[in-house]
């Protein structure tokens, strides 16, 4: 699995971020950079602030103090959101009748001409994204007919179809078996070879380990490690062991989704 070295261009720069939720501090002075071509893993125990950090970088959660630059532009001035693909934590809710190609195609809406059907370029982009995640043969299947690991790859294809330069993934391996984690690792290796930057929240690094250039570990909303993955695993093993799958789950818009929507009516 060969991965190019990152280059000097900074894709994400966060400085001294402080975020409060429900009146409580969730991030306390967090700084982080991601370079073009770099894979950064965001690690830490339950509730350490990983998802909040990702969401505040993407302007989905308001920042109390500090600043974020995306591709060299102050976040408040940034408008080129198609340069970023975001895969939130997977949830069982919604889109249950949608076909794989429709889910992936929805990631293209930002690039589509308004009120016109998908163009040949849109359809080709959907095909290419599904080929990248190795699911081209499942385009016409319903999303729910796929395994959890395959659904995760559909969501990655959805994030890729807009042709982003930065891919942000929140726990893509949660609940995914080892075989599918390995496929995911191969997909991410392909993307890194193409020069994408990857920021990935993980609780277990597993087959993704060889891809990770840098690991950032959070504890109680603070960065306690920003360095190599082996150092992180050696020095902060306790932070990485206390993990249970989150109860809360974001769907495509990051909304909170209670479990009882599982069999429910969002069609
Ligand atoms: N909307 C909210 N209102 C109030 N508190 C919140 C909200 N969202 C998250 N929190 C709290 O903020 C803290 C950090 O949550 P966050 O989801 O960022 O952690 P995490 O490291 O991603 O955890 P996990 O691994 O469990 O997903 C937690 O204590 C959580 O309960």
UniProtKB/TrEMBL annotation:
Lineage top rank: taxon: Bacteria
Alphabetized UniProt keyword annotations: ATP-binding, Hydrolase, Nucleotide-binding, Transport
UniProt-listed Pfam families: ABC_tran
SMART domains: AAA
EC annotation from Swiss-Prot or TrEMBL: 3.6.3.-
Uppermost EC category: hydrolase
PROSITE patterns: ABC_TRANSPORTER_1, ABC_TRANSPORTER_2
Molecular function terms, GO-annotated: ATP binding; hydrolase activity
InterPro entries from the UniProt entry: AAA+_ATPase, ABC_transporter-like_ATP-bd, ABC_transporter-like_CS, Metal_Ion_Import_ABC, P-loop_NTPase
Signal sequence annotation: none
Domain ABC transporter: 12-245
Record family assignment: Belongs to the ABC transporter superfamily.
Descriptive protein name: Zinc transport system ATP-binding protein
Organism whose genome encodes this protein: Microlunatus panaciterrae
